[in-house]
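Late entry, written up from scratch paper. The run itself happened at the end of the previous shift, but nothing got recorded in the book at the time, so transcribing now.
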Amino acid sequence: MEIPLKGNINSISLVKILVQLNRNGKTGTLNLSTPSFTKTIYLNAGDVIFASSNYADDRLGEMLLKAGTITVEQYDKSVEILTSTGKRQGAILVELGCLTPKELFRGLKYQVNEIIQSMFMLEDAEYEFREGDIPSQEVISLKMSMGNLIYAGVNKIVNWTRIRNVMPDTGSVLKLSEDPLSLFQEIELSSQDKKILSLIDGKKTIKEIIDSSWMGSFEALKILYVLWSIGMIEEAAGQKETLDAEETAALEEILRPLSEEEETMLAKINSLYFSLGNLTMHELLEVDETSDSEKVKKNYYRLAKEYHPDRHLTFTGPDTKKKLTTIFDAITKAYSTLRDETLRTEYFQSLVAPKAESAPQESVRAEDQFKKGIAEFKTGNFWGAIDHFKWAIKLNPEQTGYLSYLSLAYSKVPGKLKEAEEALHQAIKLEPFNADLHANLGLIYMKAGLKKRAHTSFQKALKIDPHHDKARKGLEQTKA
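Output as recorded:
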């Protein structure tokens, strides 16, 4: 059924509107309006590329301020310039030196996600889709998966009455969708989602699925609601004895575990990603001082091919994509230095030169202290580890990994949870959109018995990365 391009979401859900626009490859703007504000999603050929809002708390400056990325003084100065010049606030903050371009991009993507996900919480708003070209001067293109956006947005809905009103009666039988576009969307399902999905066989009722799930009734029904909303499951016309061959194949593909080869590759990605901070450039490229330019180039091409993000599209999770991008950038940076004979000679000389010789050597000294801290930590000498981590931070205060490990070491020492908390707060100021840091802070609060604070930290982590396993588990444990 074709959905009208104008109406109210209390009769037609935002999910159905977005799915239709995506399937039809529409370009234009979708406005959701209430008496208080209007929020807009920009689409290009069916893909979401941006979102905006005239609600005060949705503005970039307010979000950056609440995240602790900028100060009140910086915020006020940017607003003053914005008022007099009409420039974008993000561009002003970069010009003032308050943000790097990379931090601005992360902040914009976070803002867009927050605006879109907040739209799923609305139950009564007028919508209107206006087809046509998008004004390029007003939009920064941030192409995002429609499936993941809907999945994350629907997951935020916790209103029992709303979920029950949308879902069929609990005596209804559910089956997998027959539409491949709905079944194989770019969505990273959680282990709990997959567990519920595996129970849908075309003959169990909603009640039977919930009873078989070993979960709480609301938790199980909410997962069914999410799967229902994104179109992966639908109501069966009548009870069937078994799944047919096509449905069985579809379910097997969705629930298919990683192959042995994929598991091995994923382990290699994780291992290298977590070792990056401890590897020098030549260790990363697997060369030494005697290696010539040809050997450096050969190793770079081999590693670049192995860890290029585009070669691992089966790993659809944003976390794995982020790790691959970080690894690839590190490999390329190392190659840029070591491929040039002069730079390579200077690099190896710097490793043995007096440590106070130059400013860049501070980072080498910091890394050395960090490695020593890791070694002490592994032996259980947490105070020794703390000393080394503090030295590393003093030499390189911008490295959030050092602060994270300092917090971990403090958490192992009785009576030092306050220091562990402070180290993570310092790291979060540097990287406010790092889900790992917020999740680790939640664990510190849990250990301190501060359940409400822990719950809030896990919620923040999940806002940034809805699929963060540590935050998901922590949130479950801290529910009232």
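The longest strand covers residues 38-44.
(Scratch paper discarded after transcription.)
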